[in-house]
Amino acid sequence: MITKEVIEQFRVTPGKKLKLKDFDTGFTGTDEQKRLAKEKATDILDKNREHLATAQNLLYANDRHALLVIIQAMDAAGKDGTIKHVFSGINPQGCQVYSFKVPSAEELDHTFLWRHMKAVPERGRIGIFNRSYYEDVLIVKVHPELVEKSNLPPGPRDHRFWKDRYDDINAFERHLVRNGTIVLKFFLHVSKEVQKERFMERLDRPDKNWKFSLGDLKERGYWDMYQDAYEDALEATSTEVAPWYVIPADHKWVTRTAVADIIVNTIHDLELAYPKLSPEQLKALAEAKKRLEAE
């Protein structure tokens, strides 16, 4: 497991001013240190996959909690790969992944939280949001003309407008937590240089051409505005009950290991146990065993 001290370095402290430049996007050290760290991280990730499978069984059997994992990032930060590698060992029947695209006309006629409310996992299950309602305080903030597509009542779209949206998000997440849903939020923090490398790889490799979009390149031009929007959102919505974690994303093995470790530790901290049967239920099981043995 990763030490609690290291995990705390990733956590966004509620109420504290945040600057993304204070969070490392990669792993600093010599090539040999990186090699040894990668080997250790791979071993931790493998063990955490096993732990996560057990934790999911406990979550399902206990049926008192759900887990909502929110993953946000700039393009090419590794969202899809993180989901694939972290959750590859769990029972797919107990896990659901939603990748939210451009909202439909029906969705735009509801509040910005509506389509996400419908996708929240039920108790006993794990839900993963690949992008989420945070897009409405990120891409919509960078491109404020998108606000008008929501047919909202007229009014200023100033600082207060965005603060109200942060308040709505915090209230929604408090509601989820009070009703048994664990909310973990991960911002995969990739550098602009590494994003360029990954875009170039998508252009150079035929098997990855399909992953490249001219729209991604266009959004890269708004890099600084997105960094500002992320800083505002993470600072305003990292709470004690629903914390944000800024995860280094320049090295995929670091990202995947850290995300898996935080999830496993969070579920373990619930101290879940398999349901205990009543004396009557145990008696019925014993009788069923006798009947089967007598066949």
Q: Shape from CA axes?
A: globular
Q: What is the helix content?
A: 40-55%
Structural class: alpha/beta
The average pLDDT is 91
Q: What is the string of helix and strand elements?
A: HHEHEHHEHHEHHHEHH
Estimate the strand proportion: 5-15%
The radius of gyration is 22 Å
Which strand order does the major sheet show? 2-3-1-4-5
- Head-to-tail CA distance between termini: 48 Å
* Poorly predicted ranges: none
- Please report the number of helical segments: 12
Quick one: biggest sheet? 5 strands, parallel
Number of strands: 5
Any chance you could write out the topology, listing elements then pairs?
Layout lengths: L3 H7 L20 H32 L3 E8 L5 H8 L8 E5 L5 H4 L5 H4 L8 E5 L8 H4 L16 H20 L2 E9 L2 H13 L9 H7 L2 H15 L6 E5 L3 H17 L10 H15 L2
Parallel strand pairs: 1-3, 1-4, 2-3, 4-5
Helix pairs in contact: 2-11, 3-11
How would you describe this structure to a colleague?
With 295 residues, this protein is an alpha/beta fold. 49% of the residues lie in helices and 11% in strands. It is built from 12 helices and 5 strands. It has a 5-stranded parallel sheet, sandwiched between helices. Helix 2 packs parallel to helix 11 and helix 3 packs across helix 11. The longest helix is centred in the N-terminal third of the chain and has 32 residues. The model has no long low-confidence stretch (mean pLDDT 91).
Entry keywords:
single chain; 295 residues; alpha/beta; five-stranded parallel β-sheet; 12 helices
In short:
The chain has 295 residues and is of the alpha/beta class.
